[in-house]
Amino acid sequence: MTLGLSRSELILKLIVEQYLADGSPVSSKAISEHTSLQVSSATVRNTMMQLEQSGLIRSPHTSAGRIPTTQGIRLFIDKMLQLEPLPSRWLSEMQQNLQPQLPVSLLCQKAGQLLANLTGLVSIFSPPKSGGRVIRQVDLVRLAADRLLLVVIDEEGDILHRVLSQQQSVEAMTLSRALCLLNAALCGQQWLDGISRLALMLKTETGAIAGLLQDVMAQLSLDELQQNQPLVFGQHHLLQAAESQKDPALQQVIQLLEQPACLMSLLKPLTLDDSTKLILGRESGIAQLHNVSVITVRYQADPHRYLALLGPRRMNYARLIPLVEACGQQLSKHLNQPKQSP
Predict the structure, then answer these.
(1) Which residues does the UniProt record annotate as the domain Heat-inducible transcription repressor HrcA C-terminal (predicted)?
(2) What is the pLDDT of residue 1?
(3) What is the pLDDT of residue 115?
(4) Cα(276)–Cα(87) distance, rounded to whole angstroms?
(5) Which residues, other chains included, contact 125 with Cβ-Cβ below 8 Å and sequence gap of 6+?
(6) Is the separation of the CB atoms in 205 and 211 below 8 Å?
């Protein structure tokens, strides 16, 4: 027997590997012809019957073949899966795209796009800034008499820049006063605290300055809302598959990804340590995810940041698990290194 497996485990391993490769039911004849087995077709049939009674494989419809259940795939992954070395091309692309000098949000965006492009699946990243941001610098730059550029830089180097269009020309004194108030309210503060301080200052200001501060506060609030949304890449892969396969189950997954709060509530407690987690179909407890699997890993503890790869239950786990782990390690290496003083 291979890898110290019992006969029934080896037969389950062969069934799962064949199913993951082509998605077709596996017959006892195909299993008995495998070179690693030296038993009769009758013995294979009896063993497959035992596996079916144990809930590890099942017969779809009236087919003579068997496919693994979620329980069978789980046993295979936990005990029999042999991870593959990461292809050098994937490693090279990861190193080229995920540069340490990139701000956090851009680094996560590049990682998400890279994972989706390499795999043809959906990559999901926890909100890049959900741990709270400290504002390092704020500026208002005149673009025209009635247009200003708001620039806000946080401690991790991410930059918010928004054009503020005013109803009338902004005088130099108004611009100078507004900038002084913004620096007093925001610099050195966490994003939400800065917004609260700015709201208090607004109560004592009137006219053009009040209008300008109100516009800045609206942009900061909008950005805070956006930064607390998870990043999702590769939805078009699911959409194309759902259309080509006319699969309503995939349509449900697409709808879930449009409002992913339920999915994030599942992933967050699973990523409290550094180990890679795999959720198979019904294990999620979420009806929309019954036909898909999710590989997830944490890449930063404080703030809590994690990524996930979502795809069909029949995916190449041996190759994709190392890819998710390598991406997490690359992000962790860049984000957890000591911060340099500005």
Answers:
(1) 109-321
(2) 47
(3) 95
(4) 19
(5) 108, 111, 112, 230, 231, 232, 305, 306, 307, 308
(6) no
